[in-house]
Please model this.
Amino acid sequence: MATLGIPQNTIAILQKYQFHFQKKYGQNFLIDTSVLERIMKAAQIGPEDCVLEIGPGIGTMTQYLAETAVKVVAVEIDKALIPILEETLAPYENVTVLQGDILKVDIGELAKEYNGGKPLKVVANLPYYITTPIIMGLFEKNVPVSGITVMVQKEVAERMQAKPGTKDYGALSLAVQYYAEPQIAANVPPNCFMPRPAVGSAVIHLKRRGNPPAEVKDEKFMFDLIRAAFNQRRKMLPNALMGGGIPQLTKENVIKALEKLDIPETIRGERLSLYEFAELSNILCSL
Ligand code: SAM
Model:
């Protein structure tokens, strides 16, 4: 295997194809073998696994995945990378490269076609401009995915893993933790990429939960409450919720529901756990 994770090999292939990095696609290619090894370790890919890689770039991580998994399906938006991937992945018969936008791909269909409908494992050094829609799409559309291991901006990883009462805790923490158990596996400095991103990065592993940690009668309503609570996070919860434009929600009912939960009405949303947001939403649904 011509290890693309070594900078000279990446430079050589980019020069051969006269490739120009496209900022609009968030292209920062990995050039550090120890980071690649840490991603593989965090993703826990075994010989039975079918992996979906989002944005293979020139195929650096794809090569590692193909060495371990039974099958790798890689979706890349940039047409200019397809001939490069044909060369770098030529030795691997277990890799399929699809050109397209991951946000428009039917991942359920991919799982059917390449893994008999069984859950895929997602591994990616994500394009940072669409981190949240990609991850929330994987969760909300209920696609068959058992684990997600991704490189994201360090501060986004910290928000995903944050606990109530901390400065990083917010709507993203609650959304991710409702669907998965997050764990940061590595911090990765800008010099591990070409070109170097302006921000630090981190690898985070999101283990899909079998069931959500709290029973919720109306998920959309709970996430509307959460969004409203954090849109005005410095306000006391009843006031913040009233600013969220949620139909039929009255301040009186919010105060009543908080009372039932034994939570003071002066509380701010950033103090509430996922379980408490679930309870609050269930009570408000029934008032
Ligand atoms: N995996 C490679 C690596 O680690 O070196 C490249 C990672 S780079 C941060 C992100 C990759 O995602 C780029 O190859 C980019 O072209 C691709 N990409 C960007 N937007 C995409 C989209 N909507 N769908 C699929 N791939 C996309």
